[in-house]
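Database export, one record per block. Field names are fixed; values are copied verbatim from the stored entry.
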Amino acid sequence: MGKIRFQNDGKEIVELIFDDETECEIACYNLQGILADDIIADEYDLKILRLSIMNLEYLVVNLDWEFELEMADDIIERLRHFFAEQQLLIEPNMNARWDSDSIKEYLSNEYSTKRTPTTFQLANLEQMLLRKSAASFSVPGSGKTSEGLCYWLCQKSENSKLLVVLPKVGFLAWEEEFQEWIGWGPEKVIRLDVSSEQFFNKIESNPAAEVFLITYARLWRNQDHLSRLMTNGTWSMILDESHNIKRHSGSYSRAVRRIGNYARETRLILTGTPAPQGENDLWPQIEFLRNARLSASECVAWAQEVKVRTTKEQLGLIAPQYNIISRPLPESHLRLYRLLTSRLARQLESQNNVEHSEHLSSIRRHIMDIIRAASNPRVLCQMQEFVGALSSDIVRDVLETESWKIRETIDIVNTLVSENKKVIVWSCFNENTDELAIRLSHLSPRIIRGSTPSAKLDASTIEEEIEDYTREGILRDFKTDEDCRVIIANPAACGESISLHHWCHDAIYFDRNYNAGQFLQSCDRIHRYGKYPGTERITCAEEIVTYHILESRETIDERISDRLADKIDNQNRILRLGDYSTPVEEVGTNSNDNSGMSNADREDFVEYLESYLEE
């Protein structure tokens, strides 16, 4: 039988010694699928593999990897010690000294904090600080980033570091929070937003850095670099919008759990929607916290025990106003809308698909076209595939008629700007954001969508040097420049991890799709908890937020509005009950599809089409 032993007295590198070269080669192939370049084959002896002791701990304790090799006694002792350390991460320390007063006192004395946690944040922190692994499932806009920052600071040991994994749009929020809480700027908080070739150059050029921000995609691409970095020193890890690893077998999910093994001080997950499609979504997130392989049901049970959640009602904000603006389509636009809808209804009827929901996924593109037709059908008449299928009279009449939503949006924006207010306009379609930008050019609106680049920042970057065309530059100008009063944005690209509530209290929804999550996230950009910088004034407890929602009468807009209301009511009920075994998202929702359509949405749409067959 082969054996497992330390390579030398340093006891950091482990050797797997096999009896057979073929067995060693098979093991190497399998382990590279998990550890990539962290598993090394001996150059001369084809029966030996080498890996770090931390990776062996991960394989044996976390993944239940079974080696048919005899372990040396000191290896066994090391694994027992690691297992005991893992238990300390998850078991509550009932002797913990933390209460609201001690939390505030510690943060003030140790870090001279400029801000103080709110009452509901302190209540959450008291429970979170009982363990070295924690979960905050508070609603968007409640200050989960602040909770995460305070949680880490309260448990941070000397010289320890923090890795924050986040969506691409989350960089700015974390940078602002560290600056506002403890005055840490780009010399202390850096983005790991460079290529793999430049990864260690970025680290070496920022020797004072203590907080490292990285996207889920870059973590996946740089697993080996991160494992090398985090092998040295003491590390904590926070997953922001942790539902991004909800697919247990997904590449991002597996990479995050692997790197999570190096975070031996604290681990934290932050998300307002922990289980969009049920308990399986929560499974990998809790495995990250526990650093262990568990069943989905075990993960749900543990999440129920440790999670904290602040509700929207606890924030004490003024309820937002919904200004529903409903107008009929102009005659020429209504003519096109009915033509497209009737054609699609007849097409589905001829294919015998109307009654069969299993075939409904094929109509997604048609639904998007119908949404366009209800909002701004002129864009359809500029697409070659539509122009060729329509009479020249219809195309001419549609192009010569202005969309009522365009005119209404211009009027609302002009009125708000004349009142010295700022506004964000939401649309799901780039064609609409382009036309709105042209029609509002007298106000120099800024556009944020998927193609809008992020700024490249380092310790030497000052805010004024950030390029105007970047996401960060646009948001900076919107907050600080009196002449920058209008942002036109796509909710898929700008609906998460951005706070505009101190500067903007009006949003216009030019169109909406079925994605309830994106709609709620976009609403929360301007309606959330937070004190105006440098003051004790809670902005949204004093300012009324208004959502101006444009709906074309007797069109799909009204069906979408009803479906969104149903989804949001159901989500709120499930999250209020903490029932993580029940999916928040409806059956058939594809997380990779920004439209957010479920089977129920498709069935509702088909039912809507049937009314056209009856006319």
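Remark 1: The two ends are 79 Å apart (CA to CA).
Remark 2: The first strand starts at residue 2 and ends at 6.
End of record.
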